[in-house]
Structure formats: C-alpha cells, structure tokens
Write a structure and sequence with these properties.
six-stranded antiparallel beta barrel, Helix Hairpins, 3 helices, four-stranded antiparallel beta sheet, 14 strands, 267 residues, Elongation Factor Tu (Ef-tu), domain 3, alpha+beta
C-alpha cells in the first residue's frame, strides 16, 4: 500500500508539472510588429496646388438714358459686336433740333447787334456800356447754342469702346426716363482674372509673374500674367487677392467663365 500510494502521488505531481509547462509556453506572446511610419504628406502649395478663378471683362457698364425721350432706332442685340463711337441707340430728336435752330438764330442776331454797336462806337454814336451789353448778349447766345448742341448730342447713345452687347433692356418706340438702364456692354480684349491665393505663396507671386489657368467651359489651359496684388492679407482666410490678365485675346473665352489656377506654375 505504501509503495502504491507513493507511485500514485509521483504520477499526479508529474502531470501537474507538465500542465504548468504547457500553460507557460502558451502565455508567451510574440511581440507585436509595429507598422513602419507612413511617408510624410507633401506640403500643400508645392505640387498640384490649385484655386478657383473667375473671368471678368476688362471693362463693363450699363448704358442708361440721359434724357426723357422715345427710342427711334435700336441698333443692338444680344451678343452683337460693335466699334468705338458706333451709335447703339437713337432717340427721336425733333424738339431738341428745333431748339438748336432757334438758339443759332438768336446768336446770329446778337453777333450782328454787337458788331453794329462797335461800328457806332467808332462814329461816337454808341457808348462803351452799349457795346459791353451787346457783347454780353452775344456771349449768352453762344452759350445757348452750346447747350442745345449738348441736348442734341444726347439724342444718340454711342459706344464708349469696342466690345459686345451683354443685355438689352429696351425696345424700339419705347419711352425712357433719365437713368433708366438700356444696354449692358462689355469691352473686347483680354479678360481679367480675380483669385485669392494662400498668403504663404506671396514670395512667389509678383507683378508680372506668369501662371497657367484651366477653364472648365473650354477644357483648355491659358497663360495669365499677374498685374496687381492687394495691399493686405485677409487674416481670417490667410489669403491675398491678386488681379491677373489673360496674356492673349481668345475668341472662345467669355466673361463669367470659371476654372482653376495652377499655383505651382508661378514663374
């Protein structure tokens, strides 16, 4: 009994020792392999940096009526090109033309009266005061003629520069009042670009700097030149406004088109 009991105890101790070794072996965990740190992201503003841009006309304005009148002829339509000095709108001008004729007739009489007073003064038949009054009347008549000429000139609205018609607000035989909009026009020539670039690029952007612009509507790229920079940086957006111009005049570009400027292309 004693020998069997000792053998039994030895067997139990051996089994417990084996189980302990198995547990210790399983508890050993291989150290986790940390992934290699990712490559640093490229600094913004170095490669592929872009901002939205808007094309605007070099000049654009709305021509308004200077007088109360009725439109006699309307020579424009949407999109029509025109030359500098070309008549765009003509008013009925019978009354101003008649007043101009009356003013010229009065001027003729005043000049004749003045010259007569001068001749009479030579014959000692007119005083200096009479000559001066006649001269004043002649000067007043000349001013009336100039005034009526200005009124007649307002009977026709001429183009201040060469360009195209953007919108027509009136029709033929329509009565208009002073300051009433009639025609929107835009000037021909290279278009301007307005954009805001990050202030960190201010050292690269100077007047005369060249860069490329990709326009959405045409799917083409064009070269532009910086013409002016704002005198301050926007502290909220940390951007600076710059004005640029398309280097050449392209027929397929129109005011209002938009696209992106490639800032990494500043030269």
């Amino acid at each position: 009994m004693t020998v069997s009991r000792i053998a039994w105890v030895s067997l139990v101790v051996g089994l417990l020792a084996g189980a302990t070794q198995v547990v210790n072996a399983q508890s050993v965990v291989a150290p986790a392999v940390r992934p290699a740190p990712a490559a640093a992201t490229a600094n913004a503003g170095t490669v592929g940096d872009t901002v939205r841009v808007l094309l605007v006309a070099d000049r654009e304005t709305t021509l308004s009526s200077p007088v109360t009148a009725t439109i006699k002829h309307l020579y424009v339509s949407i999109g029509m090109p025109f030359k500098e000095g070309q008549t765009l709108v003509a008013f009925e001008c019978d009354e101003p033309a008649a007043r101009l004729g009356m003013a010229k007739a009065e001027l003729f009489g005043a000049v004749e009266a003045h010259e007569a007073k001068i001749r009479m003064q030579g014959l000692e038949q007119a005083s200096d005061v009479e000559v001066a009054l006649a001269a004043s009347a002649a000067a007043k008549a000349r001013a009336q003629v100039a005034l009526q000429n200005a009124q007649v000139a307002q009977c026709a609205i001429k183009a201040p520069w060469a360009g195209r018609v953007a919108k027509v607000h009136v029709r033929t035989k329509m009565s208009v009042t002073p300051s009433q909009p009639m025609v929107d026009i835009v000037k021909s020539g290279p278009l301007r670009i307005k954009l805001n670039v990050p202030s960190r690029l201010i050292s690269k952007v100077k007047a005369g700097s060249l860069f490329d612009v990709s326009i959405d509507e045409t799917s083409k790229s064009y070269q532009a030149r910086v013409v002016a920079l704002n005198s301050r940086v926007d502290p909220v957006s940390q951007t600076i406004e710059i004005e640029s111009v398309i280097v050449k005049n392209y027929d397929d570009l129109l005011p209002g088109m938009s696209g992106v400027a490639l800032l990494n292309a500043f030269k």
